[in-house]
Amino acid sequence: MHAHFIARRYWHQRRLQSRKQMVYAAVTTTYCYFRYVAEVKMSHNHSRATAMSSLNGTLQLILRM
After folding, report:
1. By residue range, what is the domain housing residue 50?
2. Measured between alpha carbons, how far is 23 from 34 in angstroms, rounded to an integer?
3. More confident: 64 or 27
């Protein structure tokens, strides 16, 4: 019974971890996309600022999980 409880807790932790990694991958992809768009547009200062602010917001969200 006790071992089962520990296993369940461990499995839950692993699932949360993999979800975090998935979110992190998505954020990285989004950030790279934003940077690419910023490079393509000549007004990249504005786009990069937007990308940075959205990235910071998402990172805050991940850290709170």
Report:
1. 2-64
2. 16
3. 27
Query: b or e along 25-55 (b: 16 or more beta carbons within 10 Å of the residue's beta carbon)?
Result: eebeeebeebbeebeeeeeeeebbeebeeeb
Q: Is the pTM above the cut of 0.70?
A: no
- Look at the chain and report how many structural domains it folds into: 1
Phi and psi angles of residue 26, each rounded to the nearest 5 degrees, phi first = -65, -40
Residue 34 has pLDDT above 80, yes or no: yes
Q: How far apart are CA 11 and CA 23, in angstroms?
A: 18
DSSP letters along 10-43, please?
HHHHHHHHHHHHHHHHHHHHHHHHHHHHHHHSS-
